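Notes taken during the Thursday session

The instructor put the following on the board and asked us to keep it in front of us for the whole hour. The protein is Threonylcarbamoyl-AMP synthase. We were told not to look anything up and to reason only from what is written here. First, the residues (207 in total):
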Amino acid sequence: MPAEFIRLYEENPEPHKLDQIVKVLRNGGVVIYPTDTVYGIGCDFSNTKAVQRVCQIKNTKPQALSFICYDLSEISEYTKHLSTPVFKVMKKALPGPFTFILEASSKVPKVLNAKKKTVGIRVPNNNIPRELVKRLGNPIITTSIRDEDEVIEYSTDPELIYEKYENLVDIVIDGGYGGNMPSTVVDCSGDYFEVIREGLGDIEEFM
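Then, after some discussion, the predicted structure tokens were revealed:
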């Protein structure tokens, strides 16, 4: 069955459509959704089969995946220790275009950190994925939708994304055109901030 194509407006996503998507996520579905950077593909992070399906689609390993939380208080559930300096910076930077690498707590499913002690966590400045997380009651996996085109690294048009993925996923959310620059990845697992990947966000603004 081809994926459903569901239009949502970031400012005010319709509750009944969100509930429809959450039901699919609860049943192990894989969904493509907008963020404040590029379009992402993901699932309920606690569903091992769904996580493996995302890995097959993206040709990656579970340990390379990050996940989206609703807010900073939810992040604290999934990390062992947030130092005061890290907490202060994250409080100012989130929601925003950052992925923070943090030390994983025991609440993070083993499939995501089987061979390492850290995880990547996001709180994007986009109501659609955040509302999905809130209604689901679990974080959702996030990994970028890339394009084969070397010039356009990330797919931005939801209709073209649908054409490519309609037989691979369960739902593609049309949240308008996406960006073409990924999140900035900041490693906070040590005693200082280390930018692993320069992206849309500038962490220096919040230091």
